[in-house]
Amino acid sequence: ETHGITFRIQISVKELLDTDVLLKLLFHLPVNYPSTLPDISVNSDQLTRAQCMDVKDKLLEQAKKHLSEPMVHDLILWIQQHLKYVIKQSATVCNEKTTLSKGTSAEDGIWMLLLHLDHMRAKAKYVKTVEKWASDLRLTGRLMFMGKIILILLQGDRSNIKEYLILQKTSKVDVDSSGKKCKEKMISVLCETKVQSQHKRFQTFEVKEYSTLDELQKEFETAGLITLFSEFVPPLLK
């Protein structure tokens, strides 16, 4: 009753070369499903781990379109009809990455996300939740407080960044004015971009408080992100 329910489904799908692909899907439906997205896990002996991740990402994209209505049956029908296109697209992306990696560094797949939060009522609990998500998804960066400004700067694999965003938008992370648990509705994605060579990689995820705008600016400067600071932070003070 407190954890929701989990169930497995195995489906056989005809793929590109008319070979059968056995998909093992695991759905965890939280207590407040379908108002909250299910957790989905995808495994298959015929697909690579990257392809399984792509299938999972596409299923979660579809799930968002069905939020607040029962969706599992629709998701299964959708992947039966679209699996070959997802795998074909995955192969194309794979080939592009291979071509790119010949002339770029191993940091090719690292992305960066800058978020602005309007407020945190249950600050201690909220901070712990953000720290746990960053740890679980192997994301580094900063949760930054300066006056009334609250920023989250994350670096990591693009798929994990996207997963973080889903968690941030669909989980009950704060409380409303009456003290009841609520989802984060006052969040802005200021920037989502690939980490460039001039950007410093954060090694850990830290929660930091700054007394002045200069201190906050220095944090961005040290990470080679002064352009990011100049473009997005000063407007938040207006």
Automatic annotation (TrEMBL):
SUPFAM superfamilies: UBC-like. It is found in: Cytoplasm; Nucleus. Residues 1-86 form the RWD domain. Keywords: Cytoplasm, Nucleus. Gene3D superfamilies: Ubiquitin Conjugating Enzyme (3.10.110.10). The keyword NAD does not apply. PROSITE patterns: RWD. GO terms for cellular component: cytoplasm; nucleus. Its main location: cytoplasm. One of its GO terms (biological process) is positive regulation of hypoxia-inducible factor-1alpha signaling pathway. It holds the Pfam family RWD. This is RWD domain-containing protein 3. It comes from Aptenodytes patagonicus (King penguin).
